[in-house]
């Protein structure tokens, strides 16, 4: 139940200026998404062995790294 308290407080704060709240939190949340997906893609070949799994993981990880780079470089259109 205590886990919900910060989220309820954050929701109440977001009601003051929803557009600014969205703009301020968009980049950090996208960064966390790219990093978490990169971890999943890097670990995937440990569970599915073979060249197809390795190739799929490499392509997926490359796309996640590219997205993270675009986000950090500031060229991502959000």
What does this entry look like structurally?
The chain has 78 residues and is mainly α. It has a domain at 30-78. It is 82% helix and 0% strand. The chain has three helices and no strands. It has helices at 4-14, 18-47, 51-73. Helix 2 runs antiparallel to helix 3 (51-73). The radius of gyration is 17 Å and the shape is elongated.
Helix fraction, binned, reads over 70%
Query: How many distinct beta strands?
Result: 0
Could you say which structural class the secondary elements and strand pairing correspond to?
mainly alpha
What's the overall geometry?
Answer: elongated
Give me the secondary-structure topology.
Elements: H1 4-14, H2 18-47, H3 51-73
Quick structural gist:
By secondary structure, the chain is mainly α.
Task: Jot down its keywords.
78 residues; mainly alpha; 3 helices; elongated
